[in-house]
Amino acid sequence: DTLLDVSGISAGTEDKPILHGVDLKVGAGETHVLMGPNGAGKSTLGHVIMGDPTYKVTSGTITFDGQDITELSPDKRSLAGIFLSYQAPVEVPGVPLYSFLRSISQMRPELKCTAREFRRRVGAIADELNLDQSFLMRELNVGFSGGEKKKIEMLQLLLLQPKLAILDETDSGLDVDALATVSHGIQRYRETVGGALIMITHNTRILERLTVDRTHVMVKGHLVAEGPASLIDDIDKNGFERFGSQAAGEG
Ligand code: ADP
Ligand code: MG
Ligand code: MG
């Protein structure tokens, strides 16, 4: 059952082509890993799947859950069930995280519930993530650290229950505490929501606790290799060099 079908996608900014004919299929509930050197275009692909208007799609199509979403706004893609990490909440003076979470969940018909039920739901998720309830009352204008942003990301993930979550280096530069929250959040997402996952990561440790279905390697805007989970260990040992030479001739 194909959930996401990226087919022949070329995209870039106004003056710079970044992705070149990218094909990527993700089945419902599958876990995929996207690896590649810095500047390869991994984040761009995530943003293009999410519909970020920064990038213009020049060819190809993106189908999600049976619907052609190539021209859809990011909002509609989000409602369709796609989640891209680092949707940092806008900093709104005086608005607690809790209210922000309430407002984003109320935009979704399938998540509509009473204030009481919402309190219960969010409380349970915070417990699962080992977050103190006082964290939920933090104001969005009060500077969150990188680790705290990732915790908010995991709250959003478990609350919104997307069909596909794209986590872009969600594990990089975190302290042990935040890494545990992220790791546990992803685990819970797999177990309770059963949604598909595209992990863009260099950190193979966070992958140890996940069953990876497919690994993709991107170099210079091309997907140059695809393989089973064992490809991750291979890259861990040998790096991207052999893929680099492959992509070099293609520009
Ligand atoms: P990765 O996530 O694999 O490190 P990115 O997708 O961030 O790679 O970037 C791929 C290439 O596209 C890089 O050369 C980067 O500088 C460029 N790029 C990405 N986004 C933009 C942008 N908004 N404007 C200009 N160049 C960009
Ligand atoms: Mg192609
Ligand atoms: Mg990136």
Description:
The chain is an alpha/beta fold. The protein has one domain: Rossmann fold (3-Layer(aba) Sandwich), CATH 3.40.50.300. The chain contains ten helices and ten strands. It has a six-stranded mixed beta sheet, sandwiched between helices. The chain has a four-stranded antiparallel beta sheet with strand order 2-1-4-5, with helices on one face. Helix 3 runs parallel beside helix 6 and helix 6 runs parallel beside helix 7. The longest helix is centred in the last third of the chain and has 18 residues. The radius of gyration is 18 Å and the shape is globular. The structure holds adenosine-5'-diphosphate and magnesium ion (2 copies). One magnesium ion binds next to strand 2.
Task: Write the topology of this structure.
Layout: E1 2-13, E2 16-27, E3 31-35, H1 42-50, E4 56-64, E5 67-68, H2 74-80, E6 82-84, H3 97-106, H4 115-128, H5 133-136, H6 146-160, E7 164-168, H7 176-193, E8 196-200, H8 204-207, E9 214-219, E10 222-227, H9 230-238, H10 241-248
Helix pairs in contact: 3-6, 6-7
The structure holds adenosine-5'-diphosphate and magnesium ion (MG) (2 copies).
InterPro entries: AAA+_ATPase, ABC_transporter-like_ATP-bd, ABC_transporter-like_CS, FeS-cluster_ATPase_SufC, P-loop_NTPase
Family: Belongs to the ABC transporter superfamily. Ycf16 family.
Domain ABC transporter: 4-245
